[in-house]
Amino acid sequence: MQTSGFLVVNKTQGITSRDVVNRAMNWFPKRTRLGHGGTLDPLATGVLVLAFGQATRLLEYVQRSPKTYTTKIIFGATSDSDDADGVITPREGVSPVDESAIRTAMNGMIGDISQIPPAFSALKVEGQRAYALARKGAEVDLEPRTIRIDHIELLEYTWPTLRLKIDCGKGTYIRSIARDLGNTLGVGGYVGELLRDRIGGFALDKSVSPEATREEALRVLWPMTAPLRGLPRCNISAEEIRNIRFGRTINLKHADAEEFVVLDENGELIAIGKLTNGKFQPTKVIPSEG
Fold first, then answer.
1. Cβ contacts of residue 222 below 8 Å, gap of 6+?
2. pLDDT in tens, 38-88
3. I need a surface site. Which of 25, 90, 102, 202 has the fewest CB within 10 A?
4. Residues annotated catalytic, as ranges
């Protein structure tokens, strides 16, 4: 079987990302390294990318890939976790909001914006997870971060329910978007449902259920190069591969690039590195599995 690569699991509601990894351990030989890129909350469903073998070293490329979500936001109340799993507090005296006002508020969220993560998040505050502090009733004060929202599409709106499709960058919390949208409109808001449709090139149309059999899972593996789409690349010779694995630079006739991918003649990943003035300096070398 393929010894390194990626697998997309269509995560179901009510389980953690770690639960999915634990179940996936049954699909691979013992002691296979497994990890996931881009945690999903228990309430959320959809694309969870697992890496196995040497591909675990490439999870950073998965995590920084653009993402697409479909979400249902509930207006007229707030949640201490900013989603339906938290303690819901209705807002008294609020009236339905016009769709035009929602669109105006949405447009103000496009681009590079400052966002405060939810108190119930995995970010650390003085060495402790924010959600652990929040569950104890502690005041959690998280610093705002700059995130990117590329596009928000209004799919359906019937007060108090709003359905959106959101294209965004790394580190974006959809729960914070729901909270901030509700605050801007003066009615409160939280995430009722959340589906991750895509991370980069990883999508639901080639995924498996967490309940899949080993045979079903192993039929839909993705190659090591899957999260590296879009990076410049070339195929190199066996001698050049040996030089790279001995830590040497090699000469390549390509344009300079901060990140450059080299492959063997069969298209298998050899290394990622920097290409400057025709010299390729590897920063991440994939050892031979032969």
1. 5, 6, 7, 8, 202, 206
2. 889 889 999 999 999 999 999 999 999 999 999 999 999 999 899 999 999
3. 90
4. 41
